[in-house]
Amino acid sequence: MNFTTANLCDSHSDEDHFQIAEPLLQAYGGQARFCGQITTIKVFEDDALIKAVLQEKVDNRVLVIDGGGSHRCALLDADSAKLAIANGWQGVVIHGCIRDSALINQLPIGIRALHTHPLKSHKKDPGDRDLLITFAGINFKQNHFLYADADGIIVSETLLS
Q1: What is the mean pLDDT of residues 18-26?
Q2: Residue 113 falls inside a structural domain
């Protein structure tokens, strides 16, 4: 994983298949840099689908969660982050909050989220999977490629080198 988002921008920013996220998300987890193909989920204050997807064995994937930008509860905790690591997920990007941030920051996974919140999620609506979701100025699509590091997040239709 020898990339920086700055170098990717220098090499590819004039291409149509390339998007740069607005700097809305905080960095968590012990892995500052991560990349992979996108799997999308859309939920609201319910983590059941998130946990189900993180149980799947994957190779080089990043889970992108549209949590509606809710600041009323957390969608990911340390147990879910450990589950993601055990099943091969490279990172999780959440338009919502996490909890257990001190523990998550010690784990070898990249997490981006709006903020932290101590309350666990509610069980209201299971959500949807593999939809186009939009936040931070990016259209996240299933199987597109996401690259994240300390400088930001980039999404591309194709694998970047």
Answers
A1: 96
A2: yes
Please state the domain count of the chain. 1
Report the CATH number that the domain containing residue 101 is assigned in CATH: 3.50.30.40
DSSP state of 63: E
In whole angstroms, give the CA distance from residue 39 to residue 145: 10
Round to whole Å and give the CA distance between 50 and 41.
Answer: 7
Whole-angstrom distance, CA of residue 92 vs CA of residue 104: 12
Question: Which residues, other chains included, contact 31 with Cβ-Cβ below 8 Å and sequence gap of 6+?
Answer: 90, 91, 108, 109, 110
User: How far apart, in Å, are the Cα atoms of 54 and each of 16, 95, 128?
Assistant: 31, 17, 14
Q: Please give the backbone phi and psi of residue 19, each rounded to the nearest 5 degrees, phi first.
A: -130, 145
Q: Which residue shows structure tokens 């946990």?
A: 51
Query: In the predicted model, what is the mean pLDDT of residues 126-147?
Result: 96
Domain for residue 76, yes or no?
yes
pLDDT in tens, 69-116: 999 999 999 999 999 999 999 999 999 999 999 999 999 999 999 999
Q: Could you tell me which residues are beta bridge partners of residue 110?
A: 91
3-class secondary-structure state, position 129: strand
